[in-house]
Each structure stands twice: as C-alpha cells, then as structure tokens.
User: What shape does this take?
Amino acid sequence: MTDQAFHRSQSEMLGERPPPANSVGVIGWMRRNLFSSATNTLVTILSLVLLWWIVPPLFNWVFFDASYSGSVGADCVGHGACWAWLDQRIDQFLYGFYPPESYWRVNLSVILLVPALAFVLFDRLPGAKYGRWYSLAYPFIAAILLVGGFGLEGVTTDKFGGFMLNLVAGVAGIALSLPIGILLALGRRSKLPLIRWLSVGFIEFIRGVPLITLLFVAVIILQLFLPSEVSLDQLLRVMIMITLFASGYMAEVIRGGLQAIPKGQYEAAEAMGLRYWQSMRLIILPQALKISIPGIVNTFIGLFKDTTLLIIIGLFDILGQARLLQTNQDWIGKVDHETFLLAALFFFVICFSMSRYSLKLEKRLDTTRR
Amino acid sequence: MTAAETDHKNPGEPVIQIVGLNKWFGPFHVLRDINLSVAPRERIVICGPSGSGKSTLIRCTNRLEEHQEGQIIVDGTELTRDLKNIDAIRREVGMVFQSFNLFPHLTVLENCTLAPIWVRKTSKAEAEEIAMEYLTRVKIPEQAEKYPGQLSGGQQQRVAIARSLCMRPNIMLFDEPTSALDPEMIKEVLDVMVDLAETGMTMLVVTHEMGFASQVADRVIFMDEGQIVEQNTPDEFFNNPQSDRTKLFLSQILSH
Assistant: This one.
C-alpha cells in the first residue's frame, strides 16, 4: 500500500498552478500598463488629474446642471446646458422642412437602408444572393419614397433638411464614389494613353480645386450654360459634385493599393489566361481594396462631413438647423454650444461606426494568420 | 501513351518553334537571333549567368514579354498581337514562377479552381475535383482549405505547380522554380517536377539545379548575352562542354 502510494507520487507530473496573483487580472494589467516605470506612473497620474479636471465639470454642464424645460431661451436659468429647445426643434434637426405628415417616408427609407447596407457589408447573411439585388434597387426605392411619385405626394428637395439631408447626400456619395474611384484608378494605370490622360486630368483637376468652388460652379455657373428649360435639381447637382470630388480622392487611395500589388500577381493571372477585367475583379482589386480600406474609409468619412457644405445652396442640413436656432429671437445666445454639440454627436456616431466596421473588415480579410 | 502527347494538334511536329527571335528592353538587346524548336514531350533545361536572357526567352513563349522580331509558334498558333491567339496559347501553356505568385486572398483550392472556372468555363464541382487530383499529385491535398500565407515556401511552389496543371496544359514553363526556396525545400519541389517529367509533359525549365538537369533533361541549353551559346544532351554538356564560356560557367556553378 505504501509502496503503491510512493510509486504513484513518483510518476505524477507537476500540475498546473495559477500565475502569481499580482501578475493577472486588473491588478496585473495595471502593473504592466500603467505603473511599469517611473515615467509611466507619472503619465498615469497626470492623465488622471487631467480627466478629473475635465470630465466632472463637463458632465455637470451637459446633464446635471442643465435645464430641460421651457419654451424660450430665457427659461434656461441654471449654469448648465439649455436643452429646452429639443422638444420643439428636434424634428427640424432630423427632417428639416420635410412635411411632418410624411416623416414616415423618411423613417421608412432609413429602416430599409439597414438591410440594404447589411447585404453589402456582411457576406454570410441568409438569402445574400437576392439581398444584393435589393441593395442595388434600394437607391431607387429610397428616391421614390423621399421625392414622391407612384401615388406618393411629391416633396421638392428644397424641403429636405436636417440630418436626413446629410444622410441622403452622404449615402449616395459613398455608394457612388467607390465604383467611380475604382474606374478612375484603373484608368490612370491604363495602357491606353487617351484613357490615362483623361483620368489623370480629371483626378488632378478635382484635387486641385476646393470643394466649395466646385459647389458654386454646380449651383450658379452651370445654370448659365444649361438651356433654361433644363433645370437639373439643385440638390442633385450638389450631390453629383460631392460624389465626383470624393471619387477623385478615392481614385488616388485605390491607386496606392494597386501599386502595392506585386507584378507577379498580374503575371500569374495573365499566364493563366485571365482577361484584363477578370484578373482585375478576381485577383487584383480584392487585394488592392483590402490594402486601401483605411484610406477608403477615411475618404468616406471626409465625404460624409463635407455634406455640411450643402448650406451654400440654401439648404439647411443639421449644421444649418443649428445656425438657424442660434439666430432665432427666442433662443439667441442660449444654445450656441448645445446645438453644435448635438450635431457633432450625430456625425460622431456615424463616422465612428464606419471606422469600427473597417477595423473589423480588415481583420476578417487578413489571410496571413497562422 | 500519355495525355500530353495525344493533346498536341500536330503529332511529330515541334510543339514550340522559335525562329529568328530578337527582343530589346529599350536600347538593350536582350535576345539575339534565337532559334529553338521543341519536340512534344521534350524536356529542356535552360541555364546561364543572370542577365543572359533565359527568363525573358521563356516569358516570350507565353507573351508575358512581347518580342519585336522573329516568329514564335506554339502548338501551331503563332504569337501575334491577336488576342485570340494569345488566349489560345496561354490556355495550353502553364507557368511556374520563382516567387510562386499564388493569390494570397484565395485558399489553395480556390487558387487551383480559378482559371479552370473562369477561363475554361469548367463547372465548380468538376474544377474542384481536378484541383484535388493535382493537389494529391503534388502531395498536399490536406492543405486545400488553407491560405498560401499559411504554407511553407516548398508547399507554396507545389501548389503553384498544381494550379498550372489544373488548366491541363500541354507545355509547362518553369522560371527558376527553386531559386527562392530554402535548401531543404528544394528537393520536394524537384521531386514533383521529376514526377511531372515522367508523365510526358513538355517542359522548359530555367534552373541552376544541375542534378535535375542531368537526371531529367533531354537537352541542356546554355545562354549568355542573349544568345544560345551551346546546346547538347546533359551527358555531353556536362562532361564535354565545347565553348569556353560554357566551361567557365560550369566551373563556377559546380565548384561548390
């Protein structure tokens, strides 16, 4: 009996032991990351002081000391923010001057946008095959919903406004600037001189001129050249300009990706007998676009924020609504920070989501993992 | 009787016929008056110092490089600017590169089925069957679902060979297939190439692996300064080189 016990203890391997308590969990993480050296400790303490100095007063201003009710600016009496205007004005911040009885049409377009985006962004959804067709059809569905037709009462685009206007222009621009940018990037590398010169000329012109100049051209000067009976919708003109502007930048971002693809990839595709468009679509672009994701999303975000320039054609996007309220007799001097803060929040939510999604996409497309 | 032999359109005729080929890179005369005729099932090893034009020569054979003078006729089709001819020839000619050039965003299996599906219009199921057959022949069927980046260099090059074979070519071009490999991986790739030679595939191989040349080649071609300096059976080439340039080259590469 004792013999057996002795033998057993001989053959036993060392069991696993948890690591020392001070190297795991919250404490371990803090030791490694916040207090690993004297400098690190100092930076940590300074950062905490800075946060203590900024965050509580900010929260007090935004939430705890804020006034929430009232019908004019004078009703806001505390030291905090004045949110009393939200009640009467939030609709205009969201929908502009769109007829209130038709708000549901805007809401429905946004709800329909969700699956349309999902089928483009996530490739493993059930019914993806038909979903893609839906995504392609979405712009037309949304246009009909928003502008009217097919039994829906017509709404002219000068009624568009608020964040809805930013979304309309931004989504359209994002959806179109990528394919146009790809074509321009390929055109710039084309072996055919004419196509190459046209692409280079277009890209360099777009990049050499400020966006606001292009918008003025679209709004004022274009009308001088068009025959008077042709009146292209102003919003449409400006959206086209924003899209073309983003396409020029997009083309250069994608060209960078194309240049990072080794020559051997083109040669292997050629040697296998793939035609130009086949090798671009199957071999080169998937790799080039993957490399370009940070730049592409960067351009998307820039484009989305450029939609605030719509104010120059007299449309009031969310920033325009903020300006309107700030100069309103009832609210003047009371809502300067609050309205901008709300607009910033809307933009931040959308732009941050794009940025997070792009990180996720990069991880998923990384095929070098071991 | 092998598939490779019966597939040739004109049995007995040379499968590659190169006449008076000249090529320039800018002012640099890289190929000078090359004449070469390759018989079906023939295995040719091309060697020579770097810059001698050997890679350019085989790259002209499937139009990765355009030649300026002379004629290249592959399996009865002349290489001209005509895209139809170029497509036809590329379907018949497989190529393996020094740097593998696998498509990193596709799995091994997808690398192998891509061209059959898009160029030969084979069904996906059939293309996958063919791909597994050739992946088995290069001894890595178990890696089919992996990405190229997860494989060793030797494995990648074997996939590249399988990928070319999936198009069922009559002719295989090898452009220094082992030059980018670690020593212990060279053998696994050469073994696959020896296997392939035994099936009767017509092969043009640019390599400095002289062991491979003497074991497999029907003919060894030595190039220098854009021209064919000497060609002979491996036995004669290694034991009884004629020109001084060949002797010098052989003494340099065989001295280690």
